[in-house]
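Methods, example record. To illustrate the input and output format used throughout this study, we show the complete record for Solute carrier organic anion transporter family member. The sequence lines were provided to the predictor; the line carrying structure tokens was produced by it.
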Amino acid sequence: MTKFSFHLALTGTYMKSSITQIERRFDLSSTHIGLIDGSFEMGNLLFLAVVSHFGAQLHRPRLIAVGCFLMSVGTLLTGLTHFFMGRYKYDTVIPILQNDSSNIAACMDPLKTADVPESLIEPPLEDERGSYMWIYVFLGNSLRGIGETPVTPLGISYIDDFAKPENSPFYIACLQTITLLGPMFGFLLGSYCANLYVDIGFVHMDSVTITVKDARWVGAWWLGFLVSSALLFISSIPFWFLPRSLPKPDTVESKSASVTPEAAVSSNHKLKLKEIAKGFVPSLRRLLGTPAYFLLLCASILKFNSFIGLFTFKAKYMEQQFGQSASRANFLIGMLNLPAVAVGIFLGGLLMRRYKLSVVSGAQLSFASSFMGYLLLLLQFGTKCDNIPVAGLTVSYNGTRSVSYNAGTLFSECNRDCSCSADEWDPVCADSGITYISPCMAGCLNSSGYGKNTVFHNCSCVSTSFPAGTSSSVKLGQCPHAKDCSRSFTSYMAVSVLSSFISSLGATPGYMVIIRSVHHATGMI
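The corresponding predicted structure is encoded as:
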């Protein structure tokens, strides 16, 4: 169960870590990305209650095995979407050349002013961004959600049914703690794949003019899904051979006066599917009619409604606000936040076992940790970095004052004769720390180098605005944030890790409160 949960969590968090890459690859809005990410919960909720009810009467390990196989198929479909598409084509004003022998006059149309034979220019690739190929990712993630349905309710109840009451919280805490290694490795896998170019192995990397910190960079998001699919398939195999029930400790005979599904099996009573279905609605009504459970359900909805958005877009927030690459953002989440959560969950279960906390005490601990965690969470948004100075967007072309963006501020006297497009984003950085939207907007007349090492020279906007001893050359890529931004980012991560630890202290007590507040017969629903 632990191995399977590890792989399940790895796959789920890898999806979270690849959100930015998928968004850029398919040219989607955050709304569409939220829909894709939420498709897992959609598929999960469609079958969760039904599978939980029927699973209580059927062979739980084999249901988990079937679910794991479905998750493997869904994850494979998500990864294979990459091979249904053409090569990734990012926006750039630099022609894709097959050697570095040509000079680019960016201030004018490069294909007209650069004396480049047509044979040296690679033919344009069909750009499938904005197509409906993302629907395959949506369907694959939905299938993964359907497959996950039996795991938590049936797996946790399988452990809880055959453990001593005082040991059950500790076992579940150990399971959840080891499971959290999955998200850690999921983010590390996401970090590794984000460092690889999306079409690695299919294009000449020397011709790629962007780096991992560029807003147009797309990593090999598909690779991790293929790895995850294989791991999930392997994890499903042992569940086919687990028994329907395990031997119960002698001291647990009086744990519940109700007759468990396993007791029915031991008496050779075979329930028919129709008889099981008749009990679904009454069981659901009895469950929702439990006041304690209903209040906990409402609290969980509010809690996860706020948490899931933060968790999904946390890496993207770190990229946009602090200038981190997708690879580094995923790495830091996996190495700092998730270990803190794992330690918090383990200590929460240890506290319940050490002090034998009751249902009420467990609920109080869960509430206190959640409340303190949310207060610390609000402090994170007090740390931020100033905008990068971009000529015509955030500062004037001489860099002395801020500007309010409009179409007119994008141009200046130094580039009015360059026939530049305001829709192109191919940023270059000057020694002054000012970022220009493109080499054309910087008024550059020639270039040297090739690929991501291209340097543009004789840039009129640079020499006009900063004439005193300043180079008139610019290099590809956006200028980095100011030095004080790194201090702000360190403060942000420190508060984030502390918030993660305190919030997770109440995870195991809260989980046990839910389990112990309902009748055993409806526990799996």
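Annotations derived from this record:
The longest helix spans residues 291-322.
Residues 110-125, 251-270 have pLDDT under 50 and may be disordered.
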